[in-house]
Design a protein that fits this description.
mainly alpha; about 150 residues; globular; about 55% helix; disordered N terminus
């Protein structure tokens, strides 16, 4: 982990350190799965935000995570970038107007891959891969353990 000051924490760096690929096209077509987003990843993000930005930002991150309707990796990535742009402060507007559709493709192959992923997602039964509730429960459990261990 490189040395970054509190004020220089970026969404890109946070995602990278926590093991989330910052390219949304990598996750195109996937639902909210525990293999992409887990309670452990979210607690890493919470801890890093708390340590680098402050407790209020960590509390806002917790509220943000609980407000995402479908916790897909794509939605997480887009929302974390918006959270950073909003000064690590949660406001409902961060969640408005995005449905997880975003392209950061740089090459023809990435554009085709993203398109094929989107087509696969649309062909599947909606909600069949949505593990949002389970992911948030895991995060809540990890957070409770983390907060309890830090009180001692």
């Amino acid at each position: 982990m490189s040395d970054q000051s509190k004020s220089s924490l970026t969404a890109h760096y946070l995602l990278e350190v926590c093991g989330v690929n910052d390219r949304t096209s990598y996750y195109a077509g996937r639902g909210a799965t525990r293999s992409d987003v887990s309670g452990k990843i979210l607690i890493q993000m919470y801890t890093m935000i708390r340590d680098r930005v402050g407790q209020q930002a960590a509390d806002d991150f917790n509220r943000l995570i609980h407000s995402i309707k479908s916790l897909t990796a794509v939605n997480l990535i887009l929302t974390i970038h918006r959270f950073e742009k909003n000064g690590w402060k949660f406001e409902q507007e961060i969640l408005k107007g995005h449905n997880g559709v975003f392209s950061d493709a740089q090459s023809h192959e990435e554009i085709i891959g993203g398109f094929l992923g989107a087509m696969m997602a649309m062909s599947q039964f909606e909600g069949s891969q949505d593990k949002t509730y389970s992911i948030i429960n895991d995060f809540d459990h990890e957070l409770k353990v983390f907060l309890t261990s830090n009180q001692e």
